[in-house]
């Protein structure tokens, strides 16, 4: 099935079919980074620690169809999952469209190139580590400030 040209400008997130919804993902991998929430003020802090299923070279999930069963804390993003959007980075296509903002020029749907996100250094490629090599008690030492 071919995607309609600039479908994201003509449909709301709720109106998109599965193929359109999945095509919005820019492949940055930021949603697969562990986040810490401050208990006092609710502030969310990103770490450079990626989920065990994320291939940190390609920024793709190694078992996307079964990720929710394998990773209990994995968040499933749907148009109605209001509580999940706040956990997404401000550069996420889903969040941008939900907020009525345009897709950035480096997004693959704008550039026509799947690797434009990596060339623009907007992904976690070469900037993260797998949770398999990080002691959970040291997660705070991995808080980063380069997420947007």
From TrEMBL:
<protein>
    <recommendedName>
        <fullName>UPF0260 protein H4O21_10620</fullName>
    </recommendedName>
</protein>
<comment type="similarity">
    <text>Belongs to the UPF0260 family.</text>
</comment>
<dbReference type="InterPro" id="IPR005358">
    <property type="entry name" value="Puta_zinc/iron-chelating_dom"/>
</dbReference>
<dbReference type="InterPro" id="IPR008228">
    <property type="entry name" value="UCP006173"/>
</dbReference>
<dbReference type="Pfam" id="PF03692">
    <property type="entry name" value="CxxCxxCC"/>
</dbReference>
């Amino acid at each position: 099935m071919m995607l309609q040209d600039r479908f994201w400008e003509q449909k709301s997130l709720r109106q998109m079919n599965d193929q359109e919804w999945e095509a919005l993902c820019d492949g940055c991998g930021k949603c697969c980074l562990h986040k810490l929430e401050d208990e006092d003020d609710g502030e969310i802090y990103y770490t450079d620690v990626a989920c065990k299923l994320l291939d940190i070279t390609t920024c793709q999930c190694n078992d996307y169809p079964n990720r929710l069963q394998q990773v209990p804390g994995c968040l499933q993003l749907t148009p109605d999952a209001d509580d999940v959007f706040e956990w997404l980075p401000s550069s996420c296509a889903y969040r941008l469209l939900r907020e009525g903002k345009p897709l950035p020029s480096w997004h693959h749907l704008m550039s026509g190139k799947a690797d434009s996100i990596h060339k623009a250094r907007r992904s976690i490629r070469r900037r993260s580590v797998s949770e398999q090599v990080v002691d959970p008690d040291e997660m705070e030492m991995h808080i980063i400030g380069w997420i947007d």
